[in-house]
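Notes from the pairing session

We agreed to fold both candidates in a single pass and log them together. This is the raw record for the first candidate, unedited. Please don't reformat it; downstream parsing expects exactly this layout.

Candidate A
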Amino acid sequence: YSDVGGYTAAGIFVSPDTVLNCGTVLAAVRFLADSVAMSPPHVYKRRDPGPGADVDREHYLYQVLRWPNRRDHGARWIHHQVVMRTIYGNSYNRVVSGVSPADELRPLDPARTHVVDQLNDMSLVYEHKDPRTGKPETLFQADVLHFRGLSLDGREGVAMYRLIRQAVAIALAT
């Protein structure tokens, strides 16, 4: 996959981890992630008849978004998604089905997950490298919940830490 860090013109190594050593970047990422995580997600159902919508607490996604996996409650999961999307440009989750089409959302490391193809029907194909074995696994769009940041191709977000690498190095050097 692409690099996960590199040296700048100032000779300082900047990666997704070290970019947060810059106080301004850390404050901005925390503010954004904390603010988004404070608002619980809702699933809405259209009113029939008439305009508007009501929260649908019976929909399976209502519960999944509040407790996406065994490790994270909803606010923690949302916070993590925003941090990954902000720094890496993307956050990925494996959709685990069972009783419903999505019983669990398990975060995938954005440094190990990438779009590798787009099919004729416009759906995306992903590759995820297992962190323990390094073995690549092919995942299809139906198996991945992907939050894209700023994108130049509409398929994958641009890694913000790469775009701000030089400015962060100057801040860290002073």
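Candidate B (folded immediately after A)
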Amino acid sequence: HMYLVALIGLVTVYWLETTTERALLEARSQPSKTNLGGMLLAGGYGLYFLQLGYLLADMPRPEPLAYLLVGVVLMLHALGMAHGLRSANSARYDASLRWLYSVILALGWLIGIATQLPATVVMFFSAFTAGAIIIIAIREELPRQGKTHFPAFLGGAILTSMAALVVQELQTRP
């Protein structure tokens, strides 16, 4: 049922973004009102970064090359997310959120080093993250309205898939 969990990740991130977008529009029209959309977006992505940090630390057999590949893939993913988060509210993102997310990512990694969650929870996190990565990639990394760069997107998808296969091979070999 990994597909269902990935779908839950995709739907959750989509819901978070659409709800946030509506709240941000409402906050702009009523500046005196508390910005619940901004808080929801910051909190939701904070949990997401915490989960990414945990998953990075929870690799079953950490190999230097595997860490490097996963780190590069997550860095590129985080750059795509940062672009979208910064475009939503550049002043808040530049002032505090980028630092907060960096600390939360490191905290997730430390939690992953210090604890061991049951395998089913880690599988849930992984599938949820896969769904979230898909929706974020579709939103941030695929240009809109005729400005497509399909060869670049296809190249990124192929390289990411190859990195995932290499990491899997490194983790399963004796």
